[in-house]
From TrEMBL:
It comes from the Bacteria. It comes from Falsibacillus albus. This is AbrB/MazE/SpoVT family DNA-binding domain-containing protein.
Length: 106
């Protein structure tokens, strides 16, 4: 089941802070690697499969991951874009989507 966690503005640094409640459950503790890729109009963040051809980033002490610039460009993220974090517990991953300004929800 996928559920909406939070919507917020994207910052200039390119980091997305993930909700701590699920970091341990998804094996994305600070210092662990996170696999980041673009799929079907969204950014997927999860514990990496081995081996992978997707981007790998480290989870920071604050539970944030850097979204690679090429993926930011694919989804259309820019400073002050509003995005939403969805939690996909069934697949143990986070899904980042751009906020739909017309409908109000992702």
């Amino acid at each position: 089941m996928t559920k909406l966690y939070k919507c917020k503005d994207f910052n200039k640094t390119g980091y997305v802070k993930l909700p701590r409640r699920w970091l341990d459950e998804f094996d994305l503790k600070p210092g662990n690697q996170a696999e980041i890729f673009y799929y079907d109009g969204s950014i997927i963040i999860k514990s990496p499969d081995n081996p992978t051809v997707h981007n790998i980033r480290m989870v920071s002490e604050k539970g944030a991951v850097l979204i690679p610039k090429e993926i930011q460009n694919l989804i259309g993220l820019s400073p002050l874009s509003e995005y939403c974090i969805l939690v996909d517990e069934d697949h143990e991953r986070f899904v980042i989507t751009i906020f739909d300004e017309k409908g109000g929800n992702p």
